[in-house]
User: What shape does this take?
Amino acid sequence: MTREEILREILESLGESKWILAVLYRDREKEPIGKEKLKTLANEYYTETTGELENLITSRYILDVFTARLEGAGLVRISRYGQVRMYSISKLGEEIIQFSRQLQ
Assistant: This one.
């Protein structure tokens, strides 16, 4: 497989979790983000970008599935502060976002 085919496959498998990755990319110069704050920011970004009135992430379960998908693919870095998991985008995650922008 070529680099482009691999990136395309990863991007397609992300589904709606790409919105969380987009928020992490947008805020990459800031501090890592906690899960609940990430949910709020992703819903706001989704609404602003698509014009949809309903939230994308409506439950903790959906948030857990989306973050696990990103974590499993190595697209996010996780740091722990006690029991709190803080998320930031990894270099591979940045590469995926840049690739997706090239496709548009």
Q: What stands out?
A: The domain at 3-103 is CATH 1.10.10.10 (Arc Repressor Mutant, subunit A). The CA atoms of residues 52 and 62 lie 18 Å apart. The first helix runs from residue 3 to 14.
